[in-house]
Amino acid sequence: MLSDAKVRAAKPRPKSYKLTDTNRLFLLVTPSGGKLWRWNYSYDGKQKTMAFGAWPQVGLADARAKRDEASGHLMEGDDPTILRKLKVVAKLEAGRQTFERVARAWHENARSQWAIVHAADIIRSLERDVFPAIGDMPIAQLTPPLVLSVLREIEARGAIETAKRVRQRISAVFIYGIAEGIATSDPAEKLGAVLKPLRKGRQPAITDLVPLRRMIRTAEEDYARPVTRLALRLLALTAVRPSELRGAQWDEFEDLNGSEPLWRIPAWRMKGDADRKDELHGDHLVPITPQALAVLRAVWPLTGEGPLVFPSNRHAHRPMSENAIGYLLNRAGYHGHHVPHGFRAAFSTIMNEWAEREGKEHDRKVIDLMLAHVPTGKVEGAYNRAAYMPRRRELAMAWANMLSDGLSAPSVLLDLPAKAMGPQSRRRVPPPVDIEFRFPTRRRSSAKVVAR
């Protein structure tokens, strides 16, 4: 029977020799001085030898523990050498079964039950928010804290609803993995209870300038029709209501080639009751800044031949879908955090804070005018909607300068893809207008194109 002292004292000889321990365990000492643990056993009438490693990395006690474990497998009728090989193969395969690999297999398996757009949104959310963090990790090694850290990153940018949706998708991947024998548990299952709750009440909006610009950049880089991207940009710059933007007609814009371009939204298209819509001189006046004018120049080659600035993709005589901009924000990861109407809250909050620092006495009233809000105590019909126009232009310019800092030029948005495209794509975008372009003069139409 061996002891630690005997193992240490063993010296090399010209030929290899054995020092035996109990239950057929022995130490093989080689001429070069190596000391290797071996164990002889019989299986299916054949004599076999199993290696347990080299001393001193594997000590005597460890070698005996390995022998006892292998002997236990042998008593159960298993060949311990074969079991070891199977474990190695299983571990290698488990290492190859990364979360991203399993997630893509789950997505491919389930995509037939989803609409094409929804299926693309699901895989894009995983590619954006999950794969960079845990995509290359073996799915079987993921733990609740690791998954929660991914969801906390999404919450940190304010996308509370997106975090909840991504948790559901991660959980679905684990359920698929369990069914396939790749995973044994779902670490995302119970995490819904510790995520931040959704805010109720007012429509969600980002009201801090830097995150707002980041959100616009992220949304504009996502897949969307150029018209939708440009509509998002003009909505942010003008802070009009989404329905007012969608129904915008080219003949509502005045002096686009002059020094004081203006968007005159007719009273009948504004929010309000019948008296508001029939009000004489009740049009809402929106100063057009150079940044907003650049959007109109960019969209002109796409829609300038028709009456609507932002028409439907399928029907040029109808406004774009009321969901188009909202879906773009959702795909960009801002579901539940910012909606198209939220640009009005962002404009109000940021500009009122700016007015406190750098503005003039009546700027709060001017900001309300720009949002088409009627001050308390005013009668609709007696309210001067054209008041403070010079100051409104100044505030619109201040807002456009702050908002546009770091954003791409509107013309750049034309070249971004509407969807994933292969090398043989035949998509062609009309060339942008040149620097000498002049908007043609249009007569104002009396026809009403209602944004449904």
The backbone outline, from C-alpha atoms, is elongated
CATH topology of the largest domain: hpI Integrase, Chain A
Write out the CATH superfamily name of the largest domain: Intergrase catalytic core
Termini distance?
A: 91 Å
Structure commentary:
The protein folds into 3 domains: about 5-95, Integrase, DNA-binding domain (Double Stranded RNA Binding Domain); about 100-195, Orthogonal Bundle (DNA polymerase, domain 1); about 210-415, Intergrase catalytic core (hpI Integrase, Chain A), CATH 1.10.443. It contains 18 helices and 7 strands. The protein has helices at about 5-10, 60-75, 80-95, 100-110, 115-130, 130-135, 145-155, 160-180, 210-220, 225-240, 240-245, 275, 290-305, 325-335, 340-360, 365-370, 390-405, 410-415, and strands at about 15-20, 25-30, 35-45, 45-55, 255, 260-265, 285. The strands form 2 sheets. A 4-stranded antiparallel β-sheet has the order 1-2-3-4. Strands 5-6-7 form a 3-stranded antiparallel β-sheet. Helix 9 (about 210-220) packs across helix 14 and helix 10 (about 225-240) packs antiparallel against helix 13 (about 290-305). The longest helix is centred in the middle third of the chain and has 20 residues, at about 160-180.
